Amino acid sequence: MNTPPLYRQLANHYLDAIRSGTLKTGERLPSIRLMMEKHAVSLSTAVQVCRELEDYGVLEARPRSGNYIRQPDSAPKPAPALAPALDTSLYAGIHEQVCAVLKASQHSTIKVNFASAYCAPELYPLKTLQDNMIKTMRSDAYLLGAAGSTCGNGALRNILARRALASKTHLAPERIVITNGATEAINLALRAVTRPGDTVAVESPTFYGLLQILESLNLRVLEVPASAHTGLNLAALQLLLQGPERIKALIVVPNLQNPLGSIMPDANKARLVKLCAEHNTVLIEDDTYGDLVDSEQPLSTLKHWDRTDNVIYCASLNKTLAPGMRLGWISAGKWHDRVEMLKHTQSRGCEVLSQLAVSEFMRTPSYERYLRRLRKTLTVQREQMSTAISRYFPIGTSVTHPQGGTLLWVELPRRHSSMVFFQEALKVGIQISPGDIFSNANRFDHFVRIGCGAPYSPRIDEALQTLGRILKNQG
Ligand SMILES: Cc1ncc(COP(=O)(O)O)c(C=O)c1O
């Protein structure tokens, strides 16, 4: 087969970039001079490339300005569909259902988002963090030129260890590793204590992200029932631990479980820790929401009850302080060295500027004042949302009343399917989390999780009325 001439090869190269969206309509094509330099071609070849692209109708020459990408006349871009169909076949191996829901939800036509567990951006102390970032950069111009340590910034690790004392939890600073959110912390914990094929137990329902992590690590999932009142069902866990299947690890969110919002009583926490130690099952504690509990006295952690170094503690600032900074941490006790090495091989240390900026804020009394204010605001928002849901949703709907956080778990009358509800809501630009994705066992299809992170407003009220109407129209 004849090789096409050089100018055509280059024209095809740019055509591919336009088709794939790397070069977008309205953007400038590299100048003739740059093209000659980058591709080592002559002036006439570079000019021919532009002519070829013009002939294809994808390039427009603007006098004294340059060559710009344009939409070809013959192929007008189709208007985006409001709600793309869920195609689970694309995500085989990483929890297809969850991926398809998340992908469909990224659509630009979303107007009201009830699927998020975050607070609205204006509730976070963004101006203070921005000021701290600028101050930090100004005071140390070399900051970005040096690689941070694998375990993270020492000052931040000290602050986290000191803050944990309030919940009577001992985390030695030198045994804390700063991570990319709780997601990386839990990944590291699981990789440290399991091998592919092992069985890991989780609460049911559970945060879908945990199911995704487990699947991506080729771990078998065992679901243990949990209630919105006291969390994990210890009797059910005990039966499973005594059963034939060896459970290598158990992931539990003891304070403000996602999606239930449950809080385990102290007696249950103590019993759970003991039970896991007796059965040699590593307990991975996910304390993502601990600081959002509506209480002046911090609740105890599972780590507090740990006498045998069998609890790996994971937490995050992504819900409480700054989702954009992606800061989390893990305290892995006797597995610390292994976790540190896994972190090093996986992603090295986390970016240091954010760590310094949050440390600057967290070491002041303003941080505690901010958290107190945030908790009060969320209490009001949860109350308003839950009242509206009770008013607008069909008779037979019930809503949880968690003592903190941003999430409500809503049980619909059994005739409703949350996946159908999700699709219908998406069509009118409203995003919810269908209950089905919080389990591998199809047990929660008549539930939805509703986020209350945003201040109540006429827009939110209208969206909840619309959701109620969709449900009532479904019968
Ligand atoms: C229970 C739970 N664990 C972990 C995560 C992930 O946390 P991060 O964003 O810090 O990675 C979430 C996020 O929603 C969560 O709800």
TrEMBL record:
Domain HTH gntR-type: from-to ranges: 4-72
Entry-linked InterPro entries: Aminotransferase_I/II_large (IPR004839), HTH_trans_reg/aminotransferase (IPR051446), PyrdxlP-dep_Trfase (IPR015424), PyrdxlP-dep_Trfase_major (IPR015421), PyrdxlP-dep_Trfase_small (IPR015422), Tscrpt_reg_HTH_GntR (IPR000524), WH-like_DNA-bd_sf (IPR036388), WH_DNA-bd_sf (IPR036390)
SUPFAM superfamilies noted in UniProt: PLP-dependent transferases, Winged helix' DNA-binding domain
Keyword Chaperone assigned: no
Domain of life: Bacteria
Keywords attached to this entry: Aminotransferase, DNA-binding, Pyridoxal phosphate, Transcription, Transcription regulation, Transferase
Family: In the C-terminal section; belongs to the class-I pyridoxal-phosphate-dependent aminotransferase family.
Protein name as catalogued: 2-aminoadipate aminotransferase
Organism: Pseudomonas laurylsulfativorans
